[in-house]
Amino acid sequence: MAYGATGGRTWAGMVGVFGEFVRPGRSLPRTREDPRTIARMRRWLARMAPILHLTRVSSAFAAVGNVWFVILWTRANDAEVGADFVKTGSLWLVLPAAALAAVGLFAYGVCMNDLLDARRDRAMRPDRPMPSGKVSASTAVTVVAVTLITAVLGAAPFGTEATVLTLALAALIILFNAAAKFVPGIGMVVLGLIYAGHMLVPNVQIRFLWPVWVVLTHCVLVFGVSYALARKTPKISRRAMVVASLGWAFWSGVLLALAWARKEEGAVWPEWVPGTAALWIAVLAGLCVLWCQRRVAATGIGPRAAEKVWRYGALWLTLYGCVWLFAGGHLTEGWILTALAVVGFAGMTFLREWYGLLEEPAGYRR
Questions:
Q1: H-only helix segments in 268-302
Q2: Which residue range is the domain that position 112 belongs to?
Q3: What would the pLDDT profile of 172-183 be if each residue is shown by its tens digit?
Q4: Tally of structural domains, the chain
Q5: For the whole model, what pTM was predicted?
Q6: Is 362 helix (H, G, I), strand (E, B) or coil?
């Protein structure tokens, strides 16, 4: 990042240790920090940056938001069933355990992706942590193992079903990264299943499954749009769109059948969930479309636009959870999830800026 002449006016300055901008003619403010301590901190941060790049922790909050929603929804509605740990356990224990499982499985997935794509990335994306040499293959294998163990340990308090589901999702992640993502019609559906299944880890027996269907549908569409914007090959053909549509319809039917089997009485939309919730979800989905259209218009079609669509699409998953909770009248739970969304977005922005400063330190031009 550089500061220089803009619009005929010269901005001269110096960026301090923490990015502080100093006006021309003024000296840098004195600090009490030991330069050696700051140097050691910068070296440690520089060593950590490739690992954080590898695990994509800046985007993991979306996965955390999904599992937190299921927990908060289950606790807020007496009609919902769930394990005692979810229904009556302390939130100070339940939410961190779910976050551990979510971040662990998310990091496992992206690390597995980079590990399997190492040869391909050396030719097409040499700036990635592994092709650039910042992370060795042995380190990546270690991170994959540690993150999977972390995910399983986080899921264990939620019961045997949660642990088995986590392991099944880990296998599905391997399938996606090894083969399915190279076949767009199948990859869109598999990725949607991973996100929807991951959402169920804290409570496999949840009765209100419409939020899970929204996540499935959202991920299928966002992956398809970002794939097309990135101009990846093979392109999404009409056949691929038909295959993806049929796969989405099949799994939508499975979720509908589960909702019907788990209902107490009446229709698959329970009476204790206001019908207006669906309207607000539709409005939020429309806002997502408009927001992504603006991002694409600003950047143009290409990998950068695809990355922005996927990033903001991930943010929307947590916002869906907030709307479900607020629409259901669960204000406390809604604000908890809203706080996660705010912290997650701020953390994502901070980490991205931090990566940029480490890889391209700020400077100035005269």
A1: 276-299
A2: 5-359
A3: 999 998 888 889
A4: 1
A5: 0.80
A6: coil
